[in-house]
C-alpha cells in the first residue's frame, strides 16, 4: 500500500472537508415518488415522431399532479412535443426505445425578444425524477448554425459574451430532492442538464452525446446548488463536460459536491467557473477518465465574476489525448486557450476578485497531451494559494507554468515536456515547495 507523507497544506485541506466528502460517499436526500402509475399513451399520445404530443404530456402531468404524484411512463416510440413543465412528486420514466423529441420551432419556446424558456422545466417543485433507459432529443441542429454565426461575430468584436440566446434542454430551478438516472440526453440547443438553486441533486448513469463542434453544449452545469452527486456518467459534447457555476447567492457559498467515476470524451473537461462570485467550497472529483477533452482539471474566472473557491480535491484521474491536463486561471476570456499574466499589474481587490485557495490535485496521470501540461495563474493582487499537486505525472509538448502562486506544494510531480522547462516558475511565485 502506498503511504503519503502529506504536506501541511494537503492535511489542512482534507481535514476541513466535511465528513461526507472525506470518508463515506455523499448521499443527497432522494426524491420520494408516490406509488401511482400513469401511461402517456392513455392520454392520447401518438408515438410516430411527427404528431405533436404537447397536449398529451400536459394532460398526463396534470393527472400525476392531481393524484399527489406518481410515475409517468413514456413507452417505446418517438414522441414529438413542445415545452414541458414537471410537477412535484413525479418520476418521468422514459422506457428503453422511447424518445422525447422536442420541436425545432423557435417560437415554441420564445418568452420575449431573444429569450427562450427551457425545453423541459421543473421550477419550484420537490421530489422530482427523470429515469429510464430512453432518450431526450433536443433538435439542437436547428439552433447551432445561428449560434456559430453569433459566436464568430462576437469574437470578431472582441466580446467575451459570445453565447447566443437558446433554450437549455433540461432545467431544474429552485427544486429540492432531484434525481436524473439512466437516460440519454442528446442534441441540446445549448446546455444539456442544469440544476440551478437546487438542494439534494443526484445524477447517475446519465449519457450526454453532442457533436464535438456543437456550440456551448455544456453537459452538466450544477449552478448555485448544494449536496450534488454526479456519478457514473459519460459525457461527449461541444463545451464543458461539467461546469460547476457559483454565481451570486445571498445564503453563502455553494457547497458539498461529489463527481465520481465519470468518463469525459470531447468537451472542455471538468470545470469550475467561470461564474464563481457566490463562492464554492467542499468539492471532490475522483476516479474519472478524460479521453480527448480540451482540458482535464479546469478552474476559470476573471476579475469581474470571481469569488472564493476553496477546499477542492481532484484525485485518481486518468487522462490521454487532452489539450492541457491542468488549468487554473484568473484570466478567463471565454476560450480554452486563454493565457495572460507576466506583465500584469495589481488591481484593487473587490468582491469579484477570483480567489483560488486549498486546491489539491492528487494521483493524476496524463499521457499524450496535445498542447501542454497546463498553467496555474493567480493574480498579482490575489495569488492562488494552498495549491497542492501530489503524485502527478504529465507527458506534454510544453511544461507546467506557474504565475502568482503562493504557499503551495508540488510533491512527486513529473512533467515530461518535449521542449522547454518542465516546471516553470517565476518571480511572482512565493513559497513554492517542490519535493521529490
What does this structure look like?
- This protein has helices at residues 8-16, 19-22, 54-66, 144-156, and strands at residues 37-39, 48-52, 70-74, 77-81, 84-85, 90-94, 98-102, 110-112, 115-116, 120-123, 126-131, 135-137, 170-173, 176-181, 184-186, 193-196, 199-204, 207-209, 226-231, 234-236, 242-244, 254-260, 263-264, 270-272, 280-286, 289-291, 295-300, 308-320, 324-329, 355-367, 372-377, 384-396, 400-403, 405-417, 423-424, 430-435.
- Mean pLDDT is 93; it is low at 1-6.
- It is elongated.
- It has 4 helices and 36 strands.
- It is mainly β.
- The protein has one domain: Single-stranded right-handed beta-helix, Pectin lyase-like (Pectate Lyase C-like), CATH 2.160.20.
- The protein has a 23-stranded parallel sheet that branches. It has a 7-stranded parallel sheet with strand order 21-24-27-29-31-33-35, with no helix packed on it. A 4-stranded parallel sheet has the order 5-10-13-16.
- It is 9% helix and 44% strand.
- The longest helix is centred in the first third of the chain and has 13 residues, at 54-66.
Salient structural properties:
436 residues; elongated; single chain; 36 strands; mainly beta; disordered N terminus; 9% helix; Pectate Lyase C-like; 7-stranded parallel beta sheet; 23-stranded parallel beta sheet
Amino acid at each position: 500500500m502506498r503511504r503519503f507523507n502529506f504536506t501541511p497544506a494537503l492535511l489542512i485541506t482534507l481535514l476541513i472537508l466535511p465528513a461526507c466528502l472525506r470518508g463515506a460517499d455523499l448521499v443527497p436526500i432522494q426524491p420520494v415518488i408516490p406509488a401511482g402509475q400513469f401511461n402517456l399513451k392513455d392520454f392520447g399520445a401518438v408515438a410516430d415522431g411527427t404528431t405533436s404530443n404537447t397536449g398529451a404530456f400536459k394532460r398526463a402531468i396534470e393527472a400525476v399532479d392531481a393524484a399527489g404524484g406518481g410515475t409517468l411512463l413514456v413507452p417505446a416510440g418517438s414522441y414529438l412535443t413542445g415545452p414541458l413543465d414537471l410537477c412535484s412528486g413525479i418520476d418521468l420514466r422514459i422506457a428503453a426505445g422511447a424518445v422525447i423529441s422536442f420541436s425545432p420551432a423557435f417560437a415554441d419556446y420564445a418568452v420575449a425578444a431573444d429569450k427562450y424558456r427551457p425545453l423541459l422545466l421543473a421550477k419550484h417543485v420537490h421530489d422530482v425524477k427523470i429515469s429510464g433507459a430512453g432518450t431526450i432529443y433536443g433538435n439542437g441542429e436547428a439552433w447551432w448554425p445561428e449560434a456559430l454565426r453569433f459566436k464568430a461575430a462576437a469574437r470578431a468584436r472582441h466580446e467575451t459574451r459570445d453565447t447566443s440566446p437558446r433554450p437549455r434542454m433540461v432545467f431544474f430551478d429552485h427544486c429540492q430532492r432531484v434525481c436524473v438516472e439512466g437516460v440519454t440526453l442528446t442534441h441540446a440547443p445549448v446546455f444539456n442538464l442544469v440544476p440551478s438553486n437546487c438542494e439534494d441533486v443526484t445524477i447517475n448513469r446519465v449519457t450526454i452525446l453532442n457533436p464535438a463542434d456543437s456550440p456551448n453544449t455544456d453537459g452538466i452545469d450544477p449552478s448555485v446548488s448544494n449536496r450534488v452527486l454526479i456519478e457514473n456518467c459519460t459525457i461527449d459534447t461541444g463545451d464543458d463536460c461539467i461546469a460547476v457555476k457559483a454565481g451570486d447567492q445571498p445564503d453563502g457559498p455553494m457547497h458539498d459536491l461529489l463527481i465520481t467515476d465519470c468518463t469525459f470524451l470531447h468537451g472542455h473537461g471538468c470545470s469550475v467557473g467561470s461564474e464563481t462570485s457566490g463562492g464554492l467550497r467542499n468539492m471532490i472529483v475522483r476516479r474519472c477518465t478524460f479521453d480527448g477533452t480540451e482540458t482535464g482539471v479546469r478552474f476559470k474566472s476573471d476579475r469581474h465574476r470571481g469569488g472564493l473557491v476553496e477546499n477542492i480535491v481532484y484525485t485518481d484521474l486518468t487522462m490521454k489525448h487532452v489539450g492541457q491536463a491542468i488549468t487554473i486561471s484568473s484570466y478567463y476570456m471565454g476560450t480554452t486557450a486563454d493565457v495572460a499574466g507576466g506583465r500584469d499589474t495589481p488591481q484593487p481587490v473587490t468582491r469579484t476578485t477570483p480567489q483560488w485557495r486549498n486546491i489539491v490535485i492528487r494521483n493524476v496521470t496524463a499521457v499524450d497531451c496535445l498542447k501542454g501540461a497546463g498553467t496555474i495563474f493567480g493574480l498579482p493582487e490575489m495569488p492562488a494559494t494552498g495549491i497542492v499537486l501530489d503524485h502527478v505525472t504529465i507527458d506534454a509538448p510544453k511544461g507546467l507554468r506557474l504565475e502568482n502562486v503562493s504557499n503551495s506544494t508540488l510533491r512527486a510531480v513529473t512533467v515530461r515536456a518535449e521542449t522547454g522547462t518542465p516546471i516553470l516558475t517565476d518571480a511572482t511565485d512565493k513559497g513554492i515547495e517542490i519535493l521529490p
